[in-house]
Every structure is written in C-alpha cells, then in structure tokens.
Description:
By secondary structure, the protein is an alpha/beta fold. Helix content is 52%, strand content 8%. The longest helix is centred in the last third of the chain and has 24 residues, at 239-262. The mean pLDDT is 88. Zinc ion (ZN) is lined by residues 52-54, 59-60, 62-63, 65-66.
Amino acid sequence: MSFNKVIGQEHAAGLLKKAIEEKRLAHAYLFIGPEGVGKSLLAKVFAKALNCEKGAADPCGECISCKKIEGNIHPDVVILSPEGKSSQIGIDAIRKIGATMSLKPYEGRTKVFMIDGADKMTEEAANSLLKTLEEPPKDTVLVLLASNMFKLQPTIVSRCQKVLFHPLGERAIMKELIERYGLDEKKAACVSRFSEGRLGRAIEVLEGEALAKRNKVVDEFLTPKQFGYEDTWLYGEPREKINETLNALAVYFRDLLVFSLSKDQGLLVNLDRAADISRDAARYPAERLERIIEIIADTQEQIKRNANIKIALACMRINIT
Length: 321
Ligand SMILES: [Zn+2]
C-alpha cells in the first residue's frame, strides 16, 4: 500500500510524501476529516514510509517493517484509540505513551504514535499530551486523528501540522466499488450514496452490517407494534453505533419526505428500498415527516451528550409513532 493508493486524499498523501522526501517532518500531525475517509489508512502508510527498510518515500509493503506495521505488531508504531464504556482516551493511556516516547526506536528509524479519536481525549489526557507536544522527543512523530477539530484544545491544534481529509464524491466511491469489489453500476450507486462520501462506510455497507442494521431499525420503527416501548435491540449497541443507526433511520425518513414531495425515486439515498419508500411515503403527511426527522436529530444530540440511552430511545419512539 503506497501513498497513491489512498483514494480521494491525494492532497493529504502528497503533503506527507513530500515531507519525507524533503526531510522536513513535523513532530506532530493532526489529521482532520469525517470517519471513514482514509485517515487511519493514510496514517499507516505514513508510519510504514517512515520505517520501510527500502528507505524510499513510498513504502514497499513487503519488508518486515512494513509487514509488522500492517499487522499492528511493530514495536515502534503505537496506536491508541478510545476504549471502555465512555469511549474516551484517558490520562493513563497518554502517560503510558509519554513514558516510552523518550526511548530510542527499538528496530525502526522513527517512532510513530497514532492517537485515533484524538477528539475523544479527556481534558486531563489532553493536558498531559500537551506537555509532550511542547517538548517533542527526537525520532518521534505523533499523528492525531480526529473528526471534530473543535473538540480539541486550541493549544493542541496549534502545535500540530494540520492535514485535511475530505468526503469523497459519489463517483469516486462508485469507481472504487466497481473496480475493487466488482459491483454493478446500480449496486455501486446505492452503496455509494448511502455511505455519504466515506469509503470506509461504503465498505462496511458492503460487508452487510450497515444495510442490515438500517433494515432492522427501519422495520422496527415503522412497524412499532411488535416491540414494547421499553424494549428495542438498539439498547445492546454501543453509544456511537446507536447514533449511526439512528442516522440511517433519519435518512430513511428524509427519503420518505423527498419522495412525497418529488415523486422521484432517482433522488433517494436508499435506492435499494425505493419500492417500500414510494409505498410508505403515502402514510405520512410531509409536516409529520419533517417533525420526525427533527425528533431523531434531537435524540442523537441527547445521546451524544450522554443522556440515558433507554429513556432517550423510549421518548423518541413515543414521539415518532
Ligand atoms: Zn517496506
């Protein structure tokens, strides 16, 4: 996997490759962009390039170093991500990497610390990281990955070189799905639209999980009588996944609204359920659909703010049925 294989992020990839070629590396990078657009993929290519035994700016992908990084077992490449129920990165994790940072690389040339979900650090963790950023150790590159720059402390942001990632166009994702997975045009269009410009999401969709969950949530909330108010399969999901699934539900209701106003199936996101949508749209007045979409967005906001999930979902159900 070399720099030019990261689809749709040519600018970000070019910037990192050039930094290696010109030996002008920053001590810390901040990759900013939505989930699923290639941030962690590019971070890994970058880590490989910094340690590849062939020593070229583009990693070979075949030497022991590249293979170890690919398998997440390289001792000089450390990946941190949010864990536990709170889905946060705590101070202990940051302290731990801080302690190893000052050591020399074990077997590579450059130690790479990736913090995936840097916007999920607790305040204590962020303060502790700041100290490291103020006195960056030699032969060490820090890569922070975040989808929301505004959740990071400005002092952290200002000490990192920012690398921006953009959602991909529908055509770019379609092309990739057709080439890589052999999809036909129609299926590729459906998956691409559903994934909202995120290739990672498109791959998840393809692997079935996302579409299966959308079907489950739509079927549950559009035919609510089969469940009690206090009982939904969503309770068992992690907080972030619940919001992603609620997003799929909101997009479905948005499709109902779009269809009821336009009668045009070509404008739908959920192309694979176009027949259901044209049928269900007649059941709801447009104002009702607008209201339901707002209710779902409010519920997502409450869940993001750590509201009790059961109560939030039960209220949502009462309000939308
Ligand atoms: Zn290599």
